[in-house]
Amino acid sequence: MPVRIPDNLPAGKILNAENIFVMPDSRALHQDIRPIRVLVLNLMPNKIETETQLLRMLGNTPLQIEIDLMRIHEKQSKHTSVDHMATFYCDFEQINHRNYDGMIVTGAPLGQINFEEVSYWTRICEIIDWSQQHVTSTLFLCWAAHAAFYHLYGLKRQLLKRKRVGVFKHVCCKQHVPLLRGFDDQFTAPHSRFSEIDIEKIVSHPDLELLAVSDEAGAYITLSKDMKNLLITGHPEYDRETLAQEYERDLQQNLPVEKPVNYFPDENPQCTPITNWRSHGNLLISNWLNYYVYQETPYKLEKV
After folding, report:
1. Which pLDDT belongs to residue 58?
2. Where is the active site (predicted)?
3. pLDDT score, position 33
């Protein structure tokens, strides 16, 4: 089944070329189907790139999904055109009266800034609180996961001496959990962050369940026991070249970063990276949408 997207969204052309099933609004209006409604709060600088990455995974599920794209503020984006933002993005005030089956909050390049010093921290907290009443299940990625750990569960992150960046091996901590169905004994996922949450604090928290960890990268998948919040500290949505592009950007800005580990063949940045996390990312999103959104959400959204 397709992801339902706005007519002329740039990601649509890219995904159609990859045989990812997406459907414009104009066609979807002729179908008598109750789609799963997903709200995406996109905090990443390059909006179109992140839209495409998320839609690529959402389009790999057997459910018809309708998305709304939301921005955190009205300030002009440095990396995305004004026309694109005005055409495809909404503000919180435009949708805060609605209910959604699912919500995705992306990462943000704010890893070394204290939460309270982030210009839109108050708004993020407002949206997170709103999601607990208006969304069946919310997926938080990377920085957003750390923000949710802090705001919802009182868990503070620890800043790292060096950026944790690369592709890391993970193992599952639990068995017979619907979110982990089909997972291999080991799987890989990208990380790109300057902080971490202490594993023992997650394990000892009465409202959280740690599901997957990495010896090198620490906690990865955490699910709230009420199943409303899924916190992913990495980036399963990343494309093949995303970490390489971030690495090149950091070098150009003279930042003290090392090349991503376990990423470039022979550890050579001149070599094209090999993607070995896409199947895990697709399965993670499919399981979340099926077991924690579709199976849990009421048919009438006003009952969320």
Report:
1. 92
2. 142, 235, 237
3. 62
For residue 197, what pLDDT is reported? 96
Of 77, 225, 94, which is closest to residue 152 (Cα–Cα)?
225
Is the model's pTM score more than 0.85? yes
In the block, tokens 């955490």 appear at 222
d(CA 222, CA 231): 5
**Which residues in the chain show pLDDT less than 70?**
1-3, 19-33
Task: Supply the pLDDT for residue 32.
Answer: 53
Q: Is 82 exposed, middle or buried (0-12, 13-18, 19+ CB in 10 A)?
A: exposed
Q: What is the DSSP letter of 70?
A: E
Residue type, 78: K
Counted domains in the chain: 1
- The catalytic residue positions are 142, 235, 237
Give the pair of three-digit tokens for residue 261: 């580990």
- Dihedral angle sign, alpha carbons of residues 230, 296, 58, 5: negative
The residues with which 230 forms a beta bridge, in sequence order, are 139, 223
234 CB contacts (<8 Å, ≥6 apart)?
141, 142, 168, 189, 190, 191, 192, 193, 217, 220
Locate 146 and state its tokens.
């750390």
* Residue 223 structural domain: 3-159+195-239+277-303
Distance in angstroms (rounded) separating the CA atoms of residues 266 and 258: 15
Is residue 135 a contact partner of residue 103, using CB atoms and an 8 Å limit?
Answer: yes
Contact 36, 297 (CB under 8 A): yes
249 annotated as ligand-binding:
yes
Given the structure tokens 């750390």, which residue do they identify? 146
Q: Is residue 123 part of a domain?
A: yes
Element (H, E) at 208: strand 208-214
> Is 192 labeled as ligand-binding?
yes
CATH number at residue 8: 3.40.50.880
Q: Do the annotations mark residue 163 as ligand-binding?
A: yes
